[in-house]
């Protein structure tokens, strides 16, 4: 994982996982922007109470304790 304190952006590659205890997001690459409160997973999967969302790219909105929103682009599907 690489992080830039000046910009608030961190990049992780490999099997990346973010969870708030209820919702779990998985991906091969993560770009986390702590200042904007966003995380972009490529490709990504989000598992939560409403099912499983998969897409080429998933943008998450988050707070310090919760994943609050997921937007999918490219071959998006809900299972």
Explain what you see.
- The protein is mainly beta and 79 residues long.
- Helix content is 0%, strand content 70%.
- The chain contains no helices and eight strands.
- The chain is globular, with a radius of gyration of 12 Å.
Q: What are the key terms here?
A:
8 strands, 79 residues, 8-stranded antiparallel sheet, mainly beta
Strand portion, in percent? over 45%
Assembly annotation: single chain
Please outline the major beta sheet: 8 strands, antiparallel
Mean pLDDT: 95
Helix-strand sequence? EEEEEEEE
Give the C-alpha Rg: 12 Å
Q: Got a strand count?
A: 8
Label the overall shape.
Answer: globular
Please report the number of helical segments.
0
Q: For the terminal residues, how far apart are their CA atoms? A: 30 Å
Estimated structural class:
mainly beta
The helicity comes to under 10%
What is this structure, in a nutshell?
It contains no helices and eight strands.
Write the layout of secondary structure elements.
Blueprint: E1 2-4, E2 9-19, E3 24-33, E4 38-48, E5 51-55, E6 57-62, E7 67-73, E8 77-78
Antiparallel strand pairs: 1-2, 2-3, 3-4, 4-5, 4-6, 5-8, 6-7
């Amino acid at each position: 994982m690489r992080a830039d304190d000046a910009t608030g952006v961190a990049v992780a590659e490999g099997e990346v996982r973010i969870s708030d205890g209820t919702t779990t997001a998985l991906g091969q690459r993560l770009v986390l922007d702590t200042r904007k409160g966003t995380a972009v997973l490529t490709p990504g999967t989000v598992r939560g109470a409403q099912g499983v969302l998969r897409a080429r790219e998933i943008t998450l909105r988050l707070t310090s304790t919760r994943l609050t929103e997921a937007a999918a682009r490219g071959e998006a599907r809900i299972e």
